[in-house]
């Protein structure tokens, strides 16, 4: 791994990327090893990249957030179902959400709650939110690519300075909550280029460059020496397959200002950044930190040229004996409310709401009936998502659960249908696009028969 520490600023006592001295920006080793970056450049050369830059921001909530407590309240249900929170009206008649989301309620015309996700795998990991497919489903040779890998393969980079498929996925104590997926049968050149990480407690970092700041990314000599060190170690460990002329171009991605500038939140308008709220770099137990400012980074990365940005945010698994479901909700929901409303407002103000789609979700929902610990257990039968932007028909609800929030009674939705909608909105042809896996078998973006959510397009 390549760890890049930012330079402290006198005003904020923080690094130039907007987080404290204990935080770090990490660029994954595979992306440096002559594999991911050169492959991205090769894909750019071999494909015809259009000028229409559309993008997807995929916000993953590790641990399985409660659908009832978030965006599918049941105010008429018994107390042991509806919980401690009241429902509030939004600016769209007939749509109610939890009282702890007043900002989103005031702009619900720009959102779409999906209340009937009904095919959750039930596993505690990010896989289905990254690929749309169940972990145990039949795999093609090489495995299923993450959604961003499909986008990278089919649409290529917008420019040579920023990879198409990037991630802000922290390494988590529960490892499956920090995995942005892979390139699958498309190859590592289309795998997510992960920009953050976490030092493993059981093993040292492969490489730490204490002196390399975001400003000094342009220092080709020092960075080249660091890269050479990494390359020797990677060769020894067998990580690198080969080096070619694209590897030199790969260095240009790190040494040109575009990616570094996108990651430098000191360059953001302070008033705009303040809308998102204050990040908390503390890792939430075995989950991710509350880096709400990464929502702003995602927008900046899209503006810089990324087509797909994945990120994990906080930790949403609160059903243990500590009974933290409702106290943690009171902490987490207002932060999420502020961050999401800021992101969507930002997209609209910048004229990006037609081109940038946002999806927010977790791996499954929570039991409608509150358990003996005053919390909610795992509930794969139904879960929720929130969509925005992308030129979708917002200001409506997709799906409906029964009175107790136990299962979908109208418009059950699959994870792949959400991805089909996102693919459609960025201009990918679901039925006409075939990609051959390593065995020569044609594969599709989603399973045959899966269509976009017709209400949204």
Automatic annotation (TrEMBL):
Pfam families: DUF1501 (PF07394). It comes from the Bacteria. PROSITE patterns: TAT (PS51318). This is DUF1501 domain-containing protein. The lineage of its organism: Bacteria, Pseudomonadati, Planctomycetota, Planctomycetia, Planctomycetales.
